[in-house]
Amino acid sequence: MSAKGDEDELLRSVALQNANSILAARQRAERRREAYLAEAQRLSRTGSFGWTVSTGEINWSDETYRIFQYDGATIPTVDLVLQRVHPEDVAFVKQTIDRASQDAKDFDHQYRLLMPDGSVKHVHVVAHALSDESGGTEFVGAVMDVTAAKQAEGRIRQIIDTIPAHAWSALPDGSVDFVNQRFVDFTGRPIGELLRWGWGSTCHPDDLPGYLDLWRAALATGEPMESEVRVRARNGDYRWLLIRTAGRGGKHRQMARNRRRHRRSQAGRSVVGR
Known about the structure:
The chain has 274 residues and is α+β, with helices and mostly antiparallel strands. The protein has helices at residues 3-44, 62-68, 78-84, 90-103, 147-162, 181-187, 191-194, 208-221, and strands at 46-52, 58-60, 107-114, 120-131, 137-145, 166-170, 176-179, 225-232, 238-248, 251-258, 262-264, 270-272. Strand 11 (262-264) and strand 12 form a beta hairpin.
């Protein structure tokens, strides 16, 4: 072999070694990224998934398998998911899945899982709709285990339920999204009737317009609000409540205390605050 041939062979050998080294480095970097992602998902209790609607194919990350407590060799399906869903939430989850597959739109929902040992998990699922190469729909999403947050929320609610006052929170449009048990007991109404705008039916009709005006002013300025409003108690009498509000994060928290005073209702009945 000539010197020129030896040189060309050496160059090819070096180039091949360099290419192999680059490929190995890329593979190591890819493995590190996958390991980092898997650890991040484990720490945050957030799994990922992909769902091809036309074929029904579903892909889960390791953390998603852990959240649903299925073996990694199990092939995930919609039916497999529904088998883990709490019986009281199955209809809602199935409706959400069916609507998402038909409308090809993003979805975001929370539901409970009933695990084989009888324990209950709370999960929050978000998914983004994409179009695949054939024009079909694929969803890429995340499954978050929010059980710890739900348990903490429950403990906080227990504390709020025991405070000696009526408490609730409302969105900027005035619709109520939380009431404590003390207010439920005071009005004698089911909690579902007090949420959103249902609370308005408990206010005296003469007081509601003025209260709403003050409410809108507080929203506009961001300042705390204080107002006195007559609210119908479970026995049908109206009681004067002193309401104080404080806004934070786009929501207003409100607390009311019964006023110790005598008032006359429009019907002429004496109303006594406790």
